[in-house]
């Protein structure tokens, strides 16, 4: 059933990362249901969803945003069951979502010094691919799914235009990101001097490749970041934290909220505004000064 749901999502032109997220959430529900009732669910029942939500809150102690994402995934699965004639009614509604108070503190948790130390650690290890990717994430705010799906052909004119077109952004939206000298220099070094050394490079259309896959995957990126952070004795840094860093750093350097929203691909400018707030660390410092 999950495979058919995946096909259903693909017909709706959902992005690869969105499909992956939905499937993970549905598998979590199936696992919980099987452990609780000894069989797989054949349809969705409101009482079961209420119990699953309670389990996530009280046993797994997951935050409201994570729980709401899983409920949203189940709602989409509910729509699939109805459209497929397996179930007659939509039982998951917005009223079942948990209320979440908007965070005030900026979600940016890493500093410019952290990013510079990470970049230096990669530079000293000698991987031009990894160095180019981290520079791209830190100084354009790209989502990791967007960065990894960039075709090599999109880089033909970037040295003249200093612009990169993202054609498969969240919600299938296109946007232009602007490339600073750090990004351009590291991309040129990787494309010119290292990309061709990877086994899959000749047949791959993607910018970032590996020896095993024609497209570098996010699991490999996460492992790579963990390795560099441990080597540099840094706290763990994820691709999404680099996106947070870009938004906060860009605002500090004088870009307007509207400019950062446009570059980062935020559909709602209020998402960008939160980066103008003090960090959690600074909030705690202020509270301690009372």
UniProtKB/TrEMBL annotation:
Keyword terms, alphabetized: Cell cycle, Cell division, Chromosome partition, Cytoplasm, DNA integration, DNA recombination, DNA-binding
Domain of life, per UniProt, equals: Bacteria
Single GO MF descriptor: DNA binding
InterPro entries hit by this protein: CB, DNA_brk_join_enz, Integrase-like_cat_sf, Integrase_catalytic, Integrase_recombinase_N, Integrase_SAM-like_N, Tyrosine_recombinase_XerCD
Core-binding (CB) domain: from which residue to which, for each copy? 1-82
Q: Which Gene3D superfamilies match?
A: 1.10.150.130, Intergrase catalytic core (1.10.443.10)
- Pfam family example for this protein? Phage_integrase
List, for all copies, the residue spans of the domain called Tyr recombinase. Answer: 105-288
Q: Is Plastid one of the keywords UniProt gives this record?
A: no
User: Main localisation, per the record?
Assistant: cytoplasm
Listed GO CC annotations: cytoplasm
From the Swiss-Prot or TrEMBL record, state where the protein is found: Cytoplasm
What's a GO biological-process term for it?
Answer: chromosome segregation
Outline what the protein does. Site-specific tyrosine recombinase, which acts by catalyzing the cutting and rejoining of the recombining DNA molecules.
Q: What is this protein called?
A: Integrase/recombinase XerD
**What species is this protein from?**
Desulfosporosinus hippei DSM 8344
Kindly list the organism's lineage: Bacteria, Bacillati, Bacillota, Clostridia, Eubacteriales
